[in-house]
Amino acid sequence: MATIQHICVSDRPGIKHSVERASLIVGSGIDGDWHAGLGHRQVSLLAEEDLHSLTNGKWRPGTFSENIVCRDFPLATLGVGTRLRLGKNAILTISQIGKHFHQPDHVERISGEYLMAHAGVFATVEQEGEVLQNDTIEVFEEVPRSVPQAVVITVSDRCFRGETVDTAGPAVADLLRHELQAHIQHIDLVPDDKAAISEILQRYCDHYSIDLLVTAGGTGPAPRDITPEATSEVVERATPGFDEAMRLASLAKTPTAILSRGTSGIRGSTFIVNLPGSERGAVENMEAIIKALPHGIKKLRGDPADCACCQPRLVKEQQRAQPG
After folding, report:
1. Neighbours of 90 (CB within 10 A)
2. Residue ranges per domain, the chain?
3. Which residue among 91, 148, 192, 214 sits deepest, i.e. has the most Cβ atoms within 10 Å of its Cβ?
4. Degrees (nearest 5) of the Cα angle 84, 80, 231?
């Protein structure tokens, strides 16, 4: 049986102290804890087994600013969107896997590892309740860690102001659910504003544990179409193959496809892809690249296996290297 071994709180940043019980507040976190608030990292969790293995057993509850330490619970297999029941009534939804530290200090550093970055899980409170030490913790609704995580953002002044209904974003989200078996974390709206687009792209890529961020809209030649420029400011590596495949597929259906300026790239471990703003154009462009995404996501997640295109060459080299 999986249990809550420690509950840790603090009214200030840094190391927390262990308590016997705590109240979980919807949309906030643990009552009285410094990290409670309206963000998506309201409650942090660590597995006792990870604490032991990464610190050689030299740790105290709250050392890593964690709120919940659980025992015999498969935290490492659960993805964003998984819902957890703690005790009798409290329900959490996992909102982020790991954490990126820009300026790590000795509190997080253990044997060269940043424990919260590698093993931490963050969650929001969806249903309130009181939790006690040794209460049970169980999976209420599972999204496996292996499932691709995606966000879809429609870029449109009119949709943002509520003057027209966004159909492209939801249509792309449906395609990703059915063809990629992705978990859609968010479907969002942003106006045709370069700074606003860049900010939301960075925020989702850096803080929401996503594999794919798709934008719909703002890719044409009109003066307000600046999604490609905003995207170019955010990406760290370009993926021109996506752009070429999408334009080629669209050009087979309409001559105006060459006017699309959509771009794509990688930020951290997230693919960013620009799609046209029309529902039909967005879906057709996504269909042109969707079969390549599972392999690409595996590589971004750190899969060390050789690409399929390299395997025949490697086999031949190995055969030539064999004696006789």
Report:
1. 24
2. 3-141, 149-300
3. 214
4. 160
Considering just the CA atoms, what is the radius of gyration of the chain in Å? 22
Q: Which CATH superfamily is domain 3-141 in?
A: PK beta-barrel domain-like (2.40.33.20)
Please, which residues have CB within 8 angstroms of residue 3's CB and are 6 or more apart in sequence?
A: 70, 71, 72, 73, 134, 135, 136, 137
The average pLDDT across 89-100 equals 90
Beta strands in the chain (DSSP E): 3-9, 17-19, 21-25, 29-30, 43-47, 68-71, 83-86, 90-97, 109-110, 113-114, 121-127, 129-132, 137-141, 149-155, 183-190, 212-216, 237-238, 264-267, 270-275
Quickly count: other Cβ atoms within 10 Å of residue 120's Cβ. 23
> What's the CA gap between 272 and 215, in Å, rounded?
8
Residue the block writes with tokens 């064999």: 322
Secondary structure letter of residue 231 according to DSSP: H
**Residue 166 and residue 157: Cα distance in Å, rounded?**
11
Q: Encoding tokens for residue 147?
A: 């499932």
Q: Any residues with CB less than 8 A from the CB of 134 and at least 6 apart, and which?
A: 3, 4, 5
Taken in order 193, 196, 198, 200, the sign of the CA dihedral is negative
Smallest CA-to-CA distance from 151 within 221, 200, 199 is with 200
Instruction: Report the chain's mean pLDDT, rounded to a whole number.
Output: 90
Summarised one tens digit per residue, pLDDT across range 233-257 is: 999 999 999 999 999 999 999 999 9
pLDDT at position 101 is 55
The tokens describing 312, both together, are: 């025949």
Q: What is the pTM of this model?
A: 0.86
- Integer Cα distance of 4 and 48 in angstroms: 9
CATH code 3.20.20.100 for 149-300: no
- The phi, psi pair for 29, rounded to 5°, reads 140, -145
CA–CA dist 92, 25 (Å, integer): 10
